[in-house]
Amino acid sequence: MEDIFAEIEPQVYNSQISVPYQWWAGETASKFFTILRDEKKILGTECPQCGRVFCPPKKTCPFCYVDTKNWKEVGPKGKVITYTVVYRQLAALKKDVPVAFGLIQLEGSANAMLHYIGGIEPEKISIGMEVEAVFADEKSASIHAISHFRPAK
Ligand SMILES: [Zn+2]
Description:
This protein is mainly β and about 150 residues long. The protein has one domain (about 25-150). Helices cover about 10% and strands about 30% of the residues. The chain has one helix and eight strands; from the N terminus they run αββββββββ. It has one helix spanning about 25-40, and strands at about 45, 55, 70-75, 75-85, 100-105, 115, 130-135, 145-150. Strands 6-5-4-7-8 form a five-stranded antiparallel beta sheet, with no helix packed on it. A three-stranded antiparallel beta sheet has the order 2-1-3. A hairpin with a 6-residue loop joins β5 and β6. About 25% of the residues are buried. The model has no long low-confidence stretch (mean pLDDT about 95). Zinc ion binds near residues 47, 49, 52 and 61. Zinc ion binds near residues 47, 50, 63 and 64.
């Protein structure tokens, strides 16, 4: 059989596909985001065995493997555990570059959440820096209920 493609130079193009989808956040994240939206409170879940509080909340303690029970308010202040600065404008970024992302460990929490760091020039951000949550003007049952973290006053 004759190979009709043997003399065709293959051409490759770069493109992107968009795949919109939805999923249920689950009971733990749903409660966290609803209270964040309606009461502007940042809550974590407490392990009944070791007493650690997790924010973002966890349904199960990753140390004891038991379900967390109580909800405890954490923050709104915390510290920068680590951070990075993005200088390339990507389509997924909703803010203009340079934009800083940090892992923020809120007061009272054993873990850290990823969020924007703003209100400061990126080169002045440091690990261990005290920051505080700034709530967004627009209500949202998502992590965007917090606009960013800024240096604590
Ligand atoms: Zn535990």
